[in-house]
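SAMPLE LOG
Freezer: B-3
Tube label: C17
Construct: single chain, 306 aa
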Amino acid sequence: MREAATPYQLDQQRRRRACNQAAARYDQAAVLPREIGARLLERLDYVRLVPRVVVDVGCATGITAVPLLKRYRQAVVVALDNAPAMLAVARRRAPWFRRLRCVCGDAEALPLADASCDLVFSNLALHWWDLERTVAELRRVLRPGGLLLFSTLGPDTLMELRRSWAAADDYIHVHAFVDMHDVGDALVRAALADPVVDMERITLTYRDVNALMADLKTLGAGNVAAGRPPGLTGKGRFQAMRAAYEQYRTEVGLLPATFEVVYGHAWAPDKPLSQGRRDGSAVFSLCQLKISEKIVDKFSQVFKNA
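STRUCTURE (predicted):
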């Protein structure tokens, strides 16, 4: 009998490969990241903050990192992602007169020093990592008085696709996203001050399931759950899923895909947090970013010669 895997257990190596492969075409399908990123950036209009150091965690191709670079002209802006190919695209997106510092790393183990950032920004990325560990890391790198501002995805995301696959087999095909209230609880447990979370649902429409699946693949957002089906999904199961999805087709002939978007922000208290990284891995200060950027330079050269 097949052992069930927790829906939050992800194959991070597989996800990193998918993101590296998707980097060149990511912007073609990034309708939702662009829209939510713009809405998240608008929230900074109501914040009185003059950051010296800004880090965009899970920056992908720099869709929000570059606007942050333009907004905070006196700040050091760090684009952080665990896919070097994504960072290579982000670097090319930056204007020639401003340097975007690119760092390759995971949100669960940020390669940044304690209390080194005034603004930690993350757009539609935190759901790819363990929530508790990630929020604790974001808290660790915030300076006293610093701001954490993020968007992520909630449990109703891709609910039509999830239910349609459930009608076809018992495997995990869609990542299980964390509830808004659990996100708020994680902020509190991380000793962040004045946490606020809210949510909205956005629906994209597609002509058929194949178009939706193609978009997810282009975004590097395919199925990387530990409980995914072994090998290729059979034609029969895919047809069963597609038939089940047809019940959602709208009067205008399109298939909906729901995304539950969770927004949150919180502040680092004025009292410094003295915990540090305890996993034995290295962290580096901003003056040492060239070490990590060598990886991005390598991928930039690869794409230039492609």
